[in-house]
Amino acid sequence: MPHILIVDDDENTCAALSEIVATEGFTSATAGDLREASLQIGWQMPDAVLADLKLPDGSGMGLFNEVGTAGVEVILMTGYASVESAVDALRMGATDYLVKPINVTRLRTVLKRIATTGDLKAEIYSLRGELRRYGRFGRLLGSSDAMQVVYDQLAKVAPTEATVFLVGESGTGKELAAQTLHELSERRRQPFLPVNCGAISPALIESEMFGHERGSFTGAERQHKGYFERADGGTLFLDEITEMPVELQVKLLRVLESGAFMRVGTNRELHADVRVVAATNRNPEEAVADGKLRADLYHRLNVFPIELPPLRARGNDVVQIANTLLEQMNGEHGTQRRFASALLDSLLLHAWPGNVRELRNFVQRAYIMADQDLISDALVPLQAAASSAAAATMVSVPVGMSLADADRQLIFATLEQCAGVKKHAAEILGISLKTLYNRLEEYASRGELPERLRANRSGATHGGITTPN
Length: 469
Fold this sequence. Notes:
By secondary structure, this protein is of the alpha/beta class.
């Protein structure tokens, strides 16, 4: 039977919590301060500690020194909640953070997760063994040292409730990492919903996130449940978080703190138990400096940051991923195609500016073009097949240029390189087609769209920019 230590200087609180944990199948011990808690830990090492943040002889965070190396989960409680104290607690190693008066439903959810964490940790340990044999970890692939660091971080944070912030270039696999986190957590039987914040119209994003009531605005013909409501009990992946309108970031911060939100068109408060994993391909600190990301939201999301390495820093992972993708296509089509060794060598030399996404596109193109089992350099030259970003016109970014201006220059240069084909340009830039449309409409409205990009080219046009036929 799992054992929990309750540390609080209020005897009534200890008694009430003891009754609750008993109904969830825990034995318990209580302590009124850090000294007494240390004695209790000496008598019996708990599976979890539920401690007040402010104790008569110090902070509840002092208990990390007592149990930190034993794999004991620490849940902190406080009546003086703040973003800073929550972030500090979670960074120190707390697996959760509860605000007084304690929400009993929320506490029971936490206790149920703790009761089954042992099985989950055993599964993750087994997965680490699989990694050593096959170079896989969940949905991620690769055996390089850079990815081993990522796997270790995912293994540690997945069983907890900590908010994770994934940072990395476009195409490095941030959504796959988020799915792996979800599938290695106690939420894995509940929904995993990915949301591209840059692909939703700014006028609709609040409704998409939190839902709306019928008649709340023109066109709202029925009640709509937002992403938070639909992801209740599961994980919500917020990609391109820096593209979320700043005014909505305030409401997102409130949901992260309290779990409470309101649909558009009502004052009735709803609650959702959602774990948030956020991601960006920008430097988040620069996004804060540029006003794209609120500092308080950044600190709340950045509890457990994980950086996904670019493909060029992953050594032989390039060959492993290419061969695996080709094997998958062989399995789907009943073929036995393989890469020539010279082509595999050239893959290692390529810079892969589009990362794994670019490599996947190359393998698909190579498979389609091949008319024999051996795929060689002569059959599918790498530079011709790979992302045109590899041979793109150089863009000069002088010191002092704003990030917005640099973004605009890069978008224009990529569109020119792609002959105005927006779908191809969006793939190279690592953004959604909708995001690219929004950016171009914004530039056009300010008269910033160059004349050379307004010219009609082959294919249909939208706002003067060519789209695929």
